[in-house]
Structure formats: C-alpha cells, structure tokens
Amino acid sequence: xxxxxxxxxxxxDLFWEDRDQNIQHLTNKIAQLDKNTxxxxxxxxxxxxxxxxxxxxxxxxxxVNWMKEMARSANAAxxxxxxxxxxxxxxxxxxxxxxxxxxxxxxxxxxxxxTHENTFFTAGxxxxxxxxxxxxxxxxxxxxxxxxxxxxxxEKHNYDMILVVANWPERRSYAWNQLLIARAIENQAYVVAVxxxxxxxxxxxYGGESGVIDPMGQHIAKGNxxxxxxxxxxxxxxxxxxxxxxxxxxxxxxxxxI
Length: 258
Known about the structure:
By secondary structure, this protein is of the alpha/beta class. The chain is built from 6 helices and 14 strands.
C-alpha cells in the first residue's frame, strides 16, 4: 500500500485527427516530467481530438504499445482514451497502463448525442475499478461526469479515487467545475480530472481547468484556463479513510444497483 500518489495531468492542445503529431507532442511532454510521478493522465481521445469519424478508430495496438513504453520509461502508470475499432464496433476506450505493462480498459458509457457520438460509437456497459499501488481507482470519461448514479460509490463499485479524462468545451466550464466538486463530495473520494485546451477541427474551444479535488470538494491543484501546463498534486490515502470514518454518510445512503 502506497500512502501517497503523485499525480501529473497533462493539460495541452491536441492536433486534429493527427495521431503521429499527437504522439510526438505527448512523448516530449512526458519526457519533461519530474521522475517522482506515480500516475500520468492524458486527455480524452488524445491521438485524434474528439473526431466523429469511424476511420479514426485504431484497429491495431500501436498507441497501446506507445503507452506501455511511456509507462515503462517514466516508471509511472499512464491513462488516456482513444477511439478503438474492435470486431467492427468502435469504442471511446480509456486505457490505464502500469509500468509493468498491465492494461486495464474502460469503454465510455455515456456517449455524447449532441455530436452524434452515440451514432458512430458503441457504449460501454460496465464500471471499471483498477487497483494500483493499493489504491482503488474508478475510470470514467468526460460525459460520464453528468451521471451521478453511474459514478456513485457502492459496495460493488468501491474506490478511493475517480479518474476522468475529458474534451469538455469551454462554454460549459462552469458545469465542469461544479460537477467535479460534486462527485468528490458525494462519494468522499479524490477526483482527478484532465481536460484539453485549444480549438478542435469543428471550431469547439476547450479551456482546460483540469483539477485534483479532495474528498471534501476542495481543489488541491487546478489548471489555469487555456494554459498549456502540467497540473500536479500529491494525494493521501489516509485522508480518504479519515474523512469517511469521521463522516460516515454512506451509512445513511440509498441502496440501489445498476
């Protein structure tokens, strides 16, 4: 069990539908990180941007192999989502990869119908919690943030931290910030969330404001609007446990299943 985890969020612009440029850009970013990082988090669809083209979905393992190499060289877990084509079905798939090359995947459950993501891609159907260095980490993607029942901590879906990767538009940045805080408070868990910056190929502007929020809803690190930067924080396992012990609100919660 590791009492503390050092988190490094890479808040940056993405090159529209250009995997090679994004990979080179992020390789350089990861190489400049300090070496005491435990988890590196990349934005949602970090190889392409939020492109609604099925041909952007990868059929091979080239990006996953790159993530494995980055995790090994940085001696840190690395997380980020990309579009994947598997047996003719396309998913927005979050990968969490350890330095040892262990891969855990989560397929985005809530697809964004405003951009017809639900037309081109297949929704995931299961919650995923990965155990890393003794921490239980729930994997989520962008639009999932609006659905508290799906993200709710329970005996079945138990965790210490929620990890969210996103392409969340700047025009809804207020909602982004409030929802991150709400998910942390209601689940008495850390929320670690990265959002991209810049303008995508459809003209949508993204403002960043990535953050690490503690189980009481307080930001312990927050990205500046529109800034290309690392957002870093150290989180403490004992803080999660002490808050839940002092404030055992889950004992009074509603019981439900999905």
